[in-house]
Amino acid sequence: MALVANFGMSGGFAALNMTGLAALMPATMRLDYIRIYQDASTSGGVTCDPPGYPTTEYIAAHPEAYLNWEKTLW
C-alpha cells in the first residue's frame, strides 16, 4: 500500500503571491493524522490484526501511548 499526501493547489483557493513564498521553498509537510477508509464489502482488505501482528492486543496493552496525545516517548 502506498499513500501520497501533497501540497495540492487549487484554482478555487485564494490567490497566492508565489514570489513571497520562494523563501519558504522547498517546504516540509508534517502529517499528524491520516484516516483511511475501506469498503466493508471488500474481502480481506485492510485490517488492524493481520496474521502474526496482533495490533489490537498491543494497543490494549499500551493504552498510555495511544490515549495521551501529548506523550511522545514510552
Compact summary:
This protein has 74 residues and is mainly alpha-helical. It is built from 3 helices and no strands.
What would you say this structure looks like, in words?
By secondary structure, the protein is an all-alpha fold. The protein contains 3 helices and no strands. The model has no long low-confidence stretch (mean pLDDT 76).
Main attributes?
mainly alpha; 74 residues; single chain
How many alpha or pi helices?
A: 3
Rg from Cα: 19 Å
Helix content, binned percent:
10-25%
Give the amount of beta strand, in percent: under 5%
Which stretches are low in confidence, meaning pLDDT under 50 for 5 or more residues running?
none
Distance between the termini: 28 Å
> Could you tell me the number of beta strands?
0
Mean pLDDT: 76
Q: Major sheet: size, sense and barrel closure? A: none
Structural class comes to mainly alpha
CA-based shape:
extended
String of helices and strands: HHH
Please describe the topology of this protein.
Layout: H1 18-21, H2 55-61, H3 63-67
